[in-house]
Queue: 3 jobs
Job 1
Amino acid sequence: MTTQTAETTVIAETTQATETPQAARTAETAQPTQAAAAALRTATRATLTIDGRALSYLDFGGTGRPLVALHGHLSEGASFAALAAALGPDWRVIAPDQRGHGDSDRAPEYTRAGYLADLEALLAHLGIDRAVLLGHSLGAINASHLAARRPELVEALIDVDTAADLPEGGPSPLSFVLGFPYTAPTREQLDAVCGPLAAAVGPVTPRPLADGSGWRLPFHPQDTVDSETLVHGDHWQQWLATDCPALLIHGLRSQALPAAQAQQMVTRRPRTTYVPVDTDHFVQHAAPEAFEAAVRTFLATL
């Protein structure tokens, strides 16, 4: 995997109230959705400008230790609203829209160096010198790499169903999004395209274009495939680089993390707790109560 160093300059910050995303949910997940909506209403959305590019993040507040939650591809920081509600005021959950996602601007590249530079700038801006890092998929890869690069910043790691070794070669499993339009005259057109994604990744919330001419997806299809391609490879060195407490939440029907590798990740890394959940890769959406319980239990041990 090719990486490059990046100089990061923080220029400005703006703050605004958040809007609750609209999404259809089944009766079984109605209560978590209500909790998430309440958390979003009280959260603060802020925009950090890095080298002229906006990095948006949600700060759910709380008076306790900080937990930085990093989403996967096709998702955004708001996907952790239910978790923030479940953790309550004891933990300050901060959930950025990583570059190219949600309200954050597209970036010229999606290397690990770029993602990590954004995270380091965000932590420095918030004055956070130590945090729990939680990540799903793309977010978990970025979390383990940041922990390996800056171990003094990381109190603990939570990996949500993400492998330490992702085979390279072949088309991206997200290549289907290349057939999606990035913009459309109406929101309804984009909602229709993204509708089937909601069952797996959660709400996909289009944004209005700045010039008022239409709507855009909260991810760019080509950027998504470029970014997903760059997560493939061997990340064992980063996973094993630290010995801070870690939690691996494993979807037993995962499309991304084979059971044998999950066991290796736990046995090879000291101070690592394993929690299996009978669901697929998108644990936090498919099994929110089990996900939140696993996180709460682990955090109580720190």
Job 2
Amino acid sequence: MSTDDNDPPSNGTNSTEHGADVDLPSTIATLDETETYRVLLTATNWPTLEHAYGFAAEAPKRLAELLAPDQGTRTKALHYLHHTLHHQNTLYEATVPAALCVAAILPNPRTTRLVDKSRYSFPGCMRTELLLWIASVADAVTDEVDVLSRRHGFPLADYPPAVGVRRIRPRLYSAAVAYVDDTDRDVAEAAITACMRLLDDPRLLRHRTALVPAIRQTLGTSERWQHRKQAIDVLDSWGEHSTGLEGQRNPLLFCDTDTPTDSAPCPVDTNEGYSEPPPF
């Protein structure tokens, strides 16, 4: 899969307007929690940026804890990503630099560590979770969302956090596409999910064709009906055939029947352990 490091930036606010111009990918890809915290502390002027509960002065510490040796600490840091920096699938000022940090952290070998799971969660290590978080952030600025937002009088172009996320989509794609063919099936499915959501960007449209085989062969044959449905929906929307892929079999729709519907027990929470259904 190709990347877009040389794509020109789109119109909008510069990604370093709130802090130093730090090359996060090469800087924190191999650092531990303490070293990552020191880099993130100066990379962005976090206290000036808002999230769901106020200003994000604590963000460097919490983001660095995604790499913590303690599994409980890592899990809490992941919860912070979902419920503070991206609460109820909303974008905030702090979501934009946080997304760049998550993308930079992905190659760190510490992201192969596990996080706590509920009995309703999808399987996967921290890297899987971070890719799915990128997918959720990207899903908030798709063309479909923009159409709906305009219909209700709130175009994404008028919302700075949405503009910011749209601006960095090539960088997020470059980070996620590296894992589309990962040997860890959960990581690969999460990476494909993230890439699909990023490819509405006009600068990235040319990469759709290259992603189609992975959508069919990996996501389209997933053990999880949610991923199979995504594969069919995206292929259809891109004008690509989804022939031979099994359609959605949501266990919630079949709880009153005696027919097995998937590997998951009934009932099944499809929210991957979060209080709001993810948009992907």
Job 3
Amino acid sequence: MTVVRVFLSQAREAGINPGATLATALDAELRHKAARKWKEENMESLDTLNRFHYEHSCFSDDCRTF
């Protein structure tokens, strides 16, 4: 019996829906990879914004009442 068949058998015995579990895991991993890619693609802009904020503070600092 292959490893995959063993996992599927154990999942079914435990009442786990393998298709739904796989879909959920794949969705989470794809979102994670997309977020990492977006961050890498926008790192220069994020660094520029962070430097500006460090040098000039937040745009709304003068408007805050707290």
